[in-house]
């Protein structure tokens, strides 16, 4: 077995992340009795790494790779197992300019879902490095050629190049790196954040990030670090240049904000949600300071963090989830029976790579801002105009107007005939990149990258009959037109990507 130092060298060289722990972890520290750790370690005393950050996603069905070991589905161009181009599937089956509004729910449902997802799942991308090469690889330059870690998506229009796609980093000790441990283990991916609903998108999943997010006077006030502007609190600006997803725009003066999750800057609604919870933490801290005179600032901070995690759990299970899975789904889920230490809480690969991405079908084209509480005046922005527009956060009362606007904006109806708006398939990050991305195609490609079994295999796993022809899908995919499109694209029900079939 490799020593920790040897594994560190392997990780730096190959770009793998996570890896086997080399010593038993002691969970006797008093802090673990009263408060959960940022990394999620020791939430379970018997299995301290279950659900912790930098641990592999859980598998419900073993990974399916093109070579049975590490290469993503579709990597090898074999006629008898050929998968359709992800972009072609999106164009012919998923992308829609026409959007029907949901007549019961507003866009807050979608926005909370994204905020929740960023508390639960993040698979790190592989470093731009080939196992046998020292220099990093330019994936865009290799358009049309599959060379690790590049698995780019070709546009169907030959005048265009590719949608750059990098594979998720493998968990150290699996895939290519398993040979260094003297064994062959299928490639697995790493969840870089905790699997618990614990507010990690607010507080981070490492002790190091948590320290940056605490105010400089946390020992006294118990507050989160923040920027003051026009008498109001905002997320701190990332002066430390920590790694965050913040694509500077050539059209706008952009600030990069720091939060517990590096994706906070991606779009205005999400950024406002992060700002809301920062303010709420500091509101709670002020309340506790005024009533708990004997508490230290450190204890106040921890208690606020504990309260917010509990409130996120309540909102998720009491308010959000019943709308998503309905009364029948909640009945199947059953009542909470208390903590069960034998259950592994780690997020499953299929949840992170396919199931939770259902939320993309709920994203409407527009974001409405209600300019004043007692006025009918509104401002409408197309969704792509809000990507990485972080400079808007400092505008007067933007937090209030966006939150009110999310309440006024109807949710997009989940309709398989109008699956995903062109705001996400044709204009993703349009103003921050010279070429926009296509989220639906990326979702399909990510499922193949992670070795997700086909839609047909998941049907059988979930208790449905396996389809032997496309007509066998008629009870779940009711549209004859969609079934014909699936047949033209895939040719065999066993080839249908899980994400596509599920949508």
From TrEMBL:
SUPFAM superfamilies: Heme-dependent peroxidases. It holds the Pfam family An_peroxidase. It comes from Sarcoptes scabiei (Itch mite). It comes from the Eukaryota. The keyword Phosphoprotein does not apply. Heme b binds at residue 360. Keywords: Heme, Iron, Metal-binding, Oxidoreductase, Peroxidase. The keyword Metal-binding applies. One of its GO terms (biological process) is response to oxidative stress. GO terms for molecular function: heme binding; metal ion binding; peroxidase activity. This is Peroxidasin.
